[in-house]
Design a protein that fits this description.
The complex is a heterodimer. Chain A is mostly helical. Chain A has a single domain (about 1-285), classed as ABC transporter involved in vitamin B12 uptake, BtuC. Chain A is about 75% helix and about 5% strand. Chain A has helices spanning about 1-40, 45-65, 70-90, 100-125, 145-170, 170-180, 185-190, 195-220, 225-240, 245-265, 270-285; strands spanning about 135-140, 145. A two-stranded antiparallel ribbon of chain A has the order 1-2. In chain A, α1 packs across α9 (about 225-240). Chain A is globular, with a radius of gyration of 19 Å. The mean pLDDT of chain A is about 85. Chain B has one domain: ABC transporter involved in vitamin B12 uptake, BtuC (Orthogonal Bundle). In chain B, α5 packs antiparallel against α9 and α10 (about 275-290) packs parallel to α12 (about 320-335). Chain B has a two-stranded antiparallel ribbon with strand order 1-4. Chain B has helices at about 25-30, 40-60, 60-85, 95-110, 115-140, 145-165, 195-215, 220-230, 240-265, 275-290, 295-315, 320-335, 335-350, and strands at about 175, 180-185, 185-190, 270. Chain B is mostly helical. The model of chain B is unreliable at about 1-20 and about 35 (pLDDT under 50). The chains are: A mainly alpha, B mainly alpha. At the A-B interface, α4, α9 and α11 of A face α6, α10 and α12 of B.
Chain lengths: ~300, ~350
């Protein structure tokens, strides 16, 4: 019994804490994906590459001598603007088409390829380390966690709550949720739908950029980082329910734990496969995911 | 939003006691072509075939082998078109079957047997089982979910291949022997001979194309197109959409597997990237460039894209960028591809002419 408690404390607990932090960051990426799908029926395959762009932008800004804090504020705005440009130039012309779900998917896929290659042209194929703003290690009950990770957790949770507050406690949120259900009705109230869509992309992609800045110092930045993260983020969105905000958060925390704990006992690559297996099971049992779509709750 | 309203519960179900067609009648209906719209395409197909037949006489060994590769990728593009153009299913993971067949073929040659037919049979069986299982899961998920599941499945296979030491890990498998393929007693195809290799692959590809065209020209293809156009109404006509989609999926997997089966013999190696998004993406780009829903378009598209890539590749390594730009241009401006463009041009000329 003592042995088991010790094992749980020394081996399992740190892994749980680590997975919790990753889960929060994953939730930021998944939130943007799920909001964009909930409002526009668009699956943004370039989302992972916007996350990558966030990491690289932070690296470059820090290299130019900017402080970490200004990068933390500036990068999400920059990445958000890139996302907004994508919506304005690429997605909007396709929205009236009947097969918009498929054509926008293809378009964002093309954008994703371009972003990844542009990143290689600009930054090369090396892996860069982003300097963390502080490097202490905190300990609670003999579990050691780098202070920076606690900071990431705090910012992530704050951003998630801010998103919840925005969506469910403000007028903008009411408009967004209404647009997810019935865009023509919202338009008939005199609200310009194109701005609503533009804002959704700006905000959702901004969150991906934020995740890029936050995780940069933990994982370093490299050209395929977004691609690797995207498959995981989609698993999250599918399990949580496409278009569900609460679902994205719950599923991100859940799947990060599944992956984190599983990699204690099986090789990490199989842990990833296990996450995918969980996703398939959810799809078979509850094709619409665990939670309702935005606006339908 | 855009989704059609689900069928109301109060509506009468399709009458059960209405005269059901017998098995024989169904078989006849399935085998009988329901439409023949292919006359303008036929000339294009013949022109392409003529070009393909004379090609090895003009190009050197490098271009002959490049053309073989474009045929193999063309099979994957064709499989994308079967799904997207006929069943309305966008698969972003057809590379799964390309890679699976390539690995099965490579492993069999290296460790089990040198008999091409035995290897082919095994690859067909493995791909059939895998596509049956994955298809049954993926097809239950509608629309965009299907694209995501197929995308993810191929990614996972690629990761497994990348991380499993026993099948070569990230290096893949090299040194795959090139067998000669016995056709009849005393007649064999020697794959060391590029020209023979070329014509053999061309022959099989033409057979696959004609076979696919034949199958999709029947009642089966008509039901698939009906599912693509309105999947909610099809069940009311007495068709179970699931089985039709599943059959199309399995068929497409086999078509893509043909490319994978031959690929190791052409290049002498397999690597995890064969499963990866790059092959899947290329296949979708190729169908888009040629024209989705034409079956011929993806084959033309694969030749164009492969040669274009080789051309661009001699100047820069940024071929993903090129693929991405082609992707966007065709999605935004030429949604029906080159064949669609040609059709519109000829239609416009027909109107403008005297």
């Amino acid at each position: 019994m003592e042995e088991l408690l010790g094992y749980l404390h020394v081996v399992v607990l740190p892994q749980v804490v680590d997975a919790l932090i990753i889960g929060v960051a994953l939730a930021l990426v998944a939130l943007g994906l799920t909001m964009i799908f909930g409002l526009l029926d668009v699956i943004n395959l370039a989302h992972g590459d916007l996350y990558m762009l966030g990491g690289y932008a932070a690296f470059t800004l820090l290299g130019w001598g900017a402080g970490y804090w200004s990068a933390l504020v500036l990068v999400p705005i920059l990445v958000g603007i890139v996302g907004w440009g994508l919506e304005e130039l690429g997605i909007r012309p396709l929205l009236p088409r009947a097969d918009r779900a498929i054509v926008t998917l293809l378009l964002t896929f093309g954008v994703s390829l371009i972003l990844r290659d542009v990143a290689q042209v600009v930054w090369g194929t090396e892996t860069y380390a982003v300097a963390a703003p502080f490097t202490g290690i905190a300990s609670f009950a003999d579990v050691f966690v780098p202070t920076y990770r606690i900071f990431v957790f705090g910012v992530g949770v704050a951003a998630i709550f801010a998103t919840w507050w925005l969506l469910y406690r403000t007028r903008i949120g009411a408009v967004l949720r209404a647009t997810a259900v019935d865009p023509p009705m919202v338009a008939s109230f005199g609200i310009p739908i194109r701005w609503v869509y533009g804002f959704t992309f700006l905000y959702g992609c901004g969150l991906a950029g934020l995740a890029g800045v936050l995780l940069g110092p933990i994982y370093a930045v490299f050209p395929t980082m977004g691609h690797d993260f995207l498959v995981m983020a989609f698993a999250v969105v599918i399990v949580g329910g496409m278009g569900s905000v609460i679902g994205a958060v719950v599923a991100a925390l859940l799947l990060a734990q599944v992956q984190g704990l599983a990699s204690l006992w099986i090789p990490p690559v199989w842990a990833e496969t296990l996450v995918y297996g969980v996703m398939l099971l959810v799809l078979v049992a509850r094709p619409a995911g665990l939670f309702n779509r935005l606006g339908e709750a | 939003m855009l989704q059609p309203s689900p069928p109301r519960a109060g509506q009468a179900p399709p009458p059960k006691d209405a005269a059901r067609p017998t098995v024989g009648e169904r078989l006849v209906r399935i085998l009988y072509p329901s439409h023949s719209s292919a006359t303008p395409l036929r000339w294009l197909a013949l022109a392409m075939l003529a070009l393909a037949v004379v090609f090895p006489l003009l190009g050197g060994p490098f271009y002959t082998r490049l053309a073989i590769e474009s045929f193999l990728l063309g099979a994957v593009a064709l499989s994308v078109d079967i799904l997207l153009g006929y069943a309305g299913l966008l698969s972003l993971g057809q590379a799964a079957y390309f890679g699976l067949a390539a690995y099965v073929s490579a492993l069999m040659y290296l460790h089990v047997t040198q008999s091409f037919w035995l290897v082919a049979l095994t690859a067909v069986a493995v791909v059939a089982v895998f596509s049956l299982v994955l298809g049954a899961v993926a097809i239950r998920a509608k629309g965009v979910y299907f694209a995501l599941i197929t995308f993810g499945a191929a990614e996972i296979l690629s990761k497994i291949a990348h991380n499993t030491r026993a099948i070569g890990g990230s290096d893949g498998l090299i040194g795959i022997p090139v067998p000669s393929i016995p056709l009849l007693p005393g007649v064999a195809i020697d794959l060391h001979n590029n020209v023979a290799f070329y014509y053999a692959v061309l022959c099989v590809l033409v057979l696959i194309y004609l076979g696919t065209r034949r199958i999709l020209d029947t009642g089966f293809g008509a039901v698939l197109r009906a599912i693509r156009d309105n999947s909610d109404r099809v069940p009311y006509l007495g068709y179970n959409a699931f089985w039709y989609k599943l059959f199309a999926y399995i068929m497409a997997a086999q078509v893509a597997a043909f490319g994978g089966l031959i690929y190791p013999l052409l290049r002498g190696f397999v690597a995890p990237h064969l499963f990866g998004f790059e092959v899947s993406t290329k296949a979708v780009v190729m169908s888009l460039v040629g024209g989705v829903g034409t079956l011929l378009g993806p084959l033309a598209g694969s030749v164009i894209v492969t040669f274009l890539e080789s051309l661009v590749g001699s100047y820069t390594e940024r071929h993903l960028l090129v693929l991405g730009v082609i992707f966007i241009v065709f999605v935004l401006f030429l949604p029906d591809g080159l064949i669609g463009l040609a059709r519109r041009l000829t239609a416009a000329r027909g109107k403008a002419g005297p």
